[in-house]
Specification:
Blueprint: H1 7-14, E1 18-22, H2 23-34, E2 38-41, H3 48-57, E3 64-67, H4 71-83, E4 88-92, H5 94-110, E5 114-120, H6 139-142, E6 152-153, H7 158-175, E7 178-184, H8 185-188, E8 191-195, H9 260-275, E9 282-285, E10 292-296, H10 301-313, E11 318-323, E12 325-327, H11 331-340, E13 343-348, H12 354-362, E14 367-372, H13 381-385
Helix pairs in contact: 2-3, 2-7, 4-5, 11-12
Length: 391
């Protein structure tokens, strides 16, 4: 029986309009509000509260919770559930995210909509399990082999943990692509006031189901019902001849591993179905007169904003550009910004990852400085003030 999202049940399960909750729990609420009906996962600090929340609530809204033997099985189950017609989701942290990379690429190649919440912790390897970091930001973009286009959001508040999870499902369904919510141990274990959106008024996107004759093969090239490079979705069990493979495939979905043109046509479409829309989601603060700007994302944006406010009170012209959507990277926005300012500072809870994309986009038009911090602690605003020439 197909899952039917029921706003009345969702409201009853989630409860009050305003709550004081963990970022991890906000991701749970976001998934349920978006219509997630399958969660497959494996416990891992600091993401375990997402799995625990889903274990309690998913059955109550008529969905399915499945704990797998490991993270490899978890994302495999999520992919299978999606092909069975479910909006599906998993949650993990660094070591588990690494284990998911092969099937992450499989989801890219098979155009499988699903959501991965990564509550990042320090690494490499087991690292500091209970402490936050931003060390997986490049992994979600480049961690799987081959060419693909990642979509990844980075929440800076607990409210955004909820809102961005809903948005992640919308992107996943619209583009038939896995989408990452790159939160971290700081956001995941932070409690803040969250306003639960009206479950009846949420703007949700659902995949476009296949409607052509069932004796025909679904073309893996473009939609048959609209002007889009995203093919309509032939859900398993609905009578379509559907061949799903991670191999290079032709327009009927059949393997074409020795055809250069077939591979080029396929992979370029997988990338262009996303890049053609020029996805950008940013927040601008005090950029009109700024000569120095923080470019940041996720938890690191919080101390950067405080440092900006302190600097402004001291008469310094400091602004901030926050990347809500880190991938696709807003190259044109950063390029234009670099032409208008003298210096860009990039605070990150790693030794410098997104700073490389910032430097590339800046193209030498201004100075770009990495402001790294590792070891499971966020920057202090006073630490960032030093990059501004402060004490």
């Amino acid at each position: 029986m197909r899952y039917k999202r029921d706003p009345k049940i969702i409201r009853k399960v989630i409860g009050n309009d305003v709550q004081f909750i963990l970022g991890d729990m906000a991701c749970v609420y976001g998934g349920i509000l978006a219509g997630c009906s399958f969660f497959g996962g494996y416990p891992i600090t600091p993401a375990s509260e997402v799995a625990e929340g889903m274990a309690r609530l998913m059955p109550r809204v008529g969905g399915t919770y499945l704990q797998m033997e490991d993270e490899i099985g978890s994302i495999a189950a999520v992919i299978g559930a999606s092909w069975g017609g479910a909006k599906s989701m998993t949650a993990t942290s660094g070591p588990g995210f690494s284990l998911m990379m092969e099937n992450y690429g499989f989801a890219m190649m098979t155009e499988t909509p699903c959501v991965l919440v990564n509550v990042q912790r320090t690494g490499p390897s087991t690292g500091q399990p209970t402490l936050g970091a931003q060390g997986d930001m490049m992994q979600c973009r480049w961690g799987s082999h081959g060419d693909f286009q990642a979509i990844a959001l980075a929440p800076s508040t607990v409210q955004e943990c909820l809102d961005f999870t809903v948005q992640a499902f919308n992107y996943a369904e619209k583009y038939r692509n896995p989408v990452c919510v790159m939160t971290d141990g700081e956001m995941g274990h932070l409690r803040e006031r969250v306003v639960i959106p009206d479950e009846k008024k949420l703007k949700l996107v659902n995949r476009v189901e296949a409607t052509i004759d069932k004796d025909k093969y679904i073309p893996f090239t473009k939609s048959q019902t609209r002007d889009s490079k995203v093919p309509d979705f032939p859900t398993f069990g609905t009578g379509y001849h559907t061949y799903v493979t991670g191999l290079t495939h032709n327009e009927k979905g059949f393997p074409a591993t020795d055809k250069q043109k077939d591979h080029e046509k396929l992979v370029k479409r997988l990338v262009e179905k996303i890049t053609d829309d020029n996805l950008v989601d940013i927040e601008k603060m005090n950029l009109d007169d700024a000569d120095t700007v923080f470019v940041t994302y996720g938890a690191s944006a919080r101390p950067a904003e405080t440092a900006m406010d302190i600097a402004r009170k001291d008469g310094k012209k400091v602004g901030l550009l926050r990347l809500k959507l880190v991938w696709p990277f807003p190259e044109q926005v950063v390029n234009k910004l670099a032409k208008d300012v003298d210096k860009i500072i990039v605070p990150e809870m790693n030794l410098g990852q997104i700073v490389h994309s910032v430097k590339e986009a800046a193209n030498g038009n201004c100075e770009v400085i990495s402001a790294p911090k590792i070891g499971g602690e966020m920057h202090l605003p006073q630490e960032l003030m030093k990059y501004l020439g402060g004490k």
